[in-house]
Amino acid sequence: MRTLSNRTKLYITLGALGAVIFLIGVVLGYMFGSLSHKKEKTETVAETAVEAPSAATVNKPSVVVSGDVDNKVVNVFFPERKRILGQIPVNSYNTANFYYDDDGFMAYHDDEGNTISHLGVDLSYHQENVNWDEVKDSGIEFVMLRCGYRGYSEGALIEDEKFREYAKACNDRDIPLGVYFFTQAVSVEEAISEAEFTLDLIKDYKISYPVAIDTEYIPDKTARTNTTEIEDELRSSMCSAFCERISREGYYPMIYASENWIRRDLEYESLQAYDFWAAQYLEENDFLYDFTIWQYTPDGYIKGVDEKVDLDISMVDYASFVPALREAFLTGGTISGGDRGTVSGDTNTDVPAGGDAEQ
Questions:
Q1: What's the pLDDT tens digit per position in 346-357?
Q2: Ramachandran sector of residue 337 (left: φ over 0; alpha: ψ -120 to 50; beta: rest)
Q3: In the chain, N or C: fewer CB atoms in 10 Å?
C-alpha cells in the first residue's frame, strides 16, 4: 500500500477545510436572507397597518364646533357604510346590484333587494326652464346646483345666473340641495377664494347635500389651466384647500372628478379623506376608486325640465345628517359617529372631512 506524502495530506486537509467553510457560508447566507425577507415583510405589513387607520377615517369631515355651548345642542350621527380599505379606498359596490328601475332611472339595491340609493340631478343655467313642482313629483330626491364658476380665460369668479332662483325653489319645496363650484384655479390661494365665493353664495340657503369642487379637463387649449403648468400635487392641494375651507364652516365637502382625471391628474392618496362624486357614463359601474355619488349619464330627462340633464345616484343619504352638521357648527352641538368618537363645544377635530365648463 502506497503511503501519502506529507504535502499530499496537507492539500487534502486544506481542501476539506475549504469545503466546510463554503458550506458554512451557504448556511449563513440562507439564514441572513431569510431574516432579511422576514424583516422586509414585517416592515411592509407595519407600513400598511399604519396607513390603514388613515384610510379608515375617510368620510368623517373635519368640523369646527362653536364654543357657545349655552345655545341649543344638536347631535349629529354619521351613517356607517361598507368600505374596502387598503393603501387607497376602492369601489366597494357590487356591480350586479346596479339596475334601471321601472321609471328608467339608475338605482342600487342591497343583497336583500332593497333599493338603498337616492336619485338626483345636477342643474345650472343651461337648464333655463324648470317647472319645480313637476321636478318635485318626478322622483328626484336631491339636486346639485352649480353655484358658480371661474372663467377659463380671464379667471373671474362668476355666479351661475340661475343659482339663487333655483336654490330658493329647492328650499321652498323641501328638495334636498347640494352645490358645486366649477374650478379653474391655478394656485392654492385661488382655490381658497373659490371656496370663500361659494360660502358667500350658499349662506342664506339650507344645504342638505355636499358642497363640491368640480375639477376636470377643459378641451379649449387656451384655458388658463391648460396654459399654466399645474403638477398633480398642486392640483390636489387646491382641492384639499377648497374642501378644508368648506368643512370649517360646518358644510360637507366633496370632489367631483372622472376616473381618468383622478388617476392621471390628481394624487388620490392625499385626497382619500374626502368623498368623491364620480363621473362615469356606463351602465355597469366599474369606477376604480371609492365614491358616494355617481353621475351616470349626461343625457337624462326628468319631468319639469325640457333640456337634457346630468342624472346621479347617491349611495349615502346626506340629507339625514348634513343639515344637522351645519346646525351643530352654528349652535355648539355634538358630533359623533363610528370610530371617530364624540366631540362637542369649542372643538376642532383632527379627523379629515370626508361638469360644466363655462368661460
A1: 333 333 333 444
A2: left
A3: N
Rounded to the nearest angstrom, the gap between the alpha carbon of residue 357 and the centroid of all alpha carbons in its chain is 21
Query: Cell match 384610510: residue?
Result: 55
Check: CB of residue 236 under 8 Å from CB of residue 273. no
Q: Which of 83-87, 123-127, 178-182, 219-223 has the least mean pLDDT?
A: 83-87
Q: Based on the domain organization, do 163 and 43 belong to the same domain?
A: no
- Do both 43 and 78 map to the same domain? no
- Do both 2 and 103 map to the same domain? no
Q: Any idea what the CATH number is for the domain that residue 102 is in?
A: 3.20.20.80
Cell numbers that stand for 138 in this block: 318626478
157: containing domain: 61-344
- What integer pLDDT is reported at residue 67 of this predicted model? 52
Residue where the block lists cell 362637542: 344
Q: Are residues 188 and 109 in the same domain?
A: yes
The answer to whether 181 touches 148, Cβ cutoff 8 Å, is: yes
Residue 61 pLDDT more than 70?
Answer: no
What digits encode the pLDDT tens for the residues 89-116?
899 999 999 999 999 999 999 999 999 9
Report yes or no: 329 and 66 within 8 Å, Cβ to Cβ. yes
Q: At 54, which helix (H) or strand (E)? A: helix 6-56
pLDDT in tens, 113-164: 999 999 999 999 999 999 999 999 999 999 999 999 999 888 999 999 999 9
Q: Is the domain of 140 the same as that of 209?
A: yes
| Rounded distance between C-alpha atoms, residue 178 and residue 199, angstroms | 12
Does the structure show a pLDDT above 90 at 230? Answer: yes
Domain membership flag for residue 198 = yes
Q: What are phi and psi of 90, to 5 degrees?
A: -120, 170
Element (H, E) at 98: strand 98-100
